[in-house]
């Protein structure tokens, strides 16, 4: 695979300068998002029965709120928490309605603006470092991440190859790192993508952490050396490049793709609802202004289309698909669009159990695991269902820390422990690919 953008990039950008001196992400006051979240609150609501569920759905459907968990009003169910970000002008009204209906709730973020400022500190005063001192324990802008990718490719040619699989809606390149010894082109492979939803910043942080740890430990870690010798890892640190850039510069809680207006006068699509398996059914929305908007047709988003095309081309070798999300502390596998057991359930369940056990061994953090439909909720258009249906036998979605105390504002102080434990889980899944697990080929002929 050729690195088709390398020459033009080097001609126009001096990499160390980008990493050390870049000011694109922090014009004066940009880190405060113009104080747009001052007084906003995040409510945790727990309806206890079906009647309360219906009442809550009616309340929230008529009030402009940002769903953190679940993704939309249609997915609310009893005895499952509902986390919603409420604008300051609506907090008093929502509190009064919940009290009137005697629905249990608490406010776990009382001033969202202050929590944003705590999460990353003042970006404009934070030191930018050279690649040799690249700080993996802070969140990075899209420009910094892409510069880091070029530098990893340049400094580790024996283990890293970088290439583009296409361009985003707004014309940004979609870069992927291939990690592993390339002497065996027919090796099994693992796909890992991060940053599908723009506001889930811990995802891109993990993808960078994984690459750094894999390279730095190759010489002394026999497990990692074996993995890189026998497997290829395709790492996409930022799947949703337009949305991530927008969440960094303009709207911290932006979820979807795109930042420019398009013909629907709303912006973007939920990239995880744009896949062909049961497209735009349960858990997705056909309304362009909703966070779970599935798009005008399957694979309408160039990012989704590019990844789907790449995986179809390499499906004979890609044995595991891993998508990194936040938050909930879960490890999910198919099916997500229906209540049914996958044909190779025992193999996938065993891999998931090994992964969460390895994760727990780091800091004692517990993850739930199981089919997405029963562990989380039924949702259509999911990438793990698509990957599984396209012959990738191990398809997983991680929902990283935490369970709601910080939500999407996971502090930078928790990047290291979160990535350390997740690294163990991914290594466990990858190690399992090197062992045989019997499955029913009559029921699952494309494995």
From TrEMBL:
<dbReference type="GO" id="GO:0008270">
    <property type="term" value="F:zinc ion binding"/>
</dbReference>
<dbReference type="InterPro" id="IPR057246">
    <property type="entry name" value="CARBOXYPEPT_ZN_1"/>
</dbReference>
<keyword id="KW-0812">Transmembrane</keyword>
<dbReference type="GO" id="GO:0006508">
    <property type="term" value="P:proteolysis"/>
</dbReference>
<keyword id="KW-0482">Metalloprotease</keyword>
<keyword id="KW-0378">Hydrolase</keyword>
<dbReference type="InterPro" id="IPR036990">
    <property type="entry name" value="M14A-like_propep"/>
</dbReference>
<comment type="similarity">
    <text>Belongs to the peptidase M14 family.</text>
</comment>
<dbReference type="Pfam" id="PF00246">
    <property type="entry name" value="Peptidase_M14"/>
</dbReference>
<dbReference type="InterPro" id="IPR000834">
    <property type="entry name" value="Peptidase_M14"/>
</dbReference>
<feature type="transmembrane region" description="Helical">
    <location>
        <begin position="12"/>
        <end position="33"/>
    </location>
</feature>
<keyword id="KW-0121">Carboxypeptidase</keyword>
<protein>
    <submittedName>
        <fullName>Carboxypeptidase A6</fullName>
    </submittedName>
</protein>
<dbReference type="InterPro" id="IPR033843">
    <property type="entry name" value="CPAH"/>
</dbReference>
<feature type="domain" description="Peptidase M14">
    <location>
        <begin position="138"/>
        <end position="433"/>
    </location>
</feature>
<dbReference type="GO" id="GO:0005615">
    <property type="term" value="C:extracellular space"/>
</dbReference>
<keyword id="KW-0862">Zinc</keyword>
<keyword id="KW-1015">Disulfide bond</keyword>
<keyword id="KW-0479">Metal-binding</keyword>
<keyword id="KW-0732">Signal</keyword>
<keyword id="KW-0645">Protease</keyword>
<dbReference type="InterPro" id="IPR057247">
    <property type="entry name" value="CARBOXYPEPT_ZN_2"/>
</dbReference>
<keyword id="KW-1133">Transmembrane helix</keyword>
<dbReference type="GO" id="GO:0004181">
    <property type="term" value="F:metallocarboxypeptidase activity"/>
</dbReference>
<dbReference type="InterPro" id="IPR003146">
    <property type="entry name" value="M14A_act_pep"/>
</dbReference>
<dbReference type="Pfam" id="PF02244">
    <property type="entry name" value="Propep_M14"/>
</dbReference>
<keyword id="KW-0472">Membrane</keyword>
<feature type="active site" description="Proton donor/acceptor">
    <location>
        <position position="399"/>
    </location>
</feature>
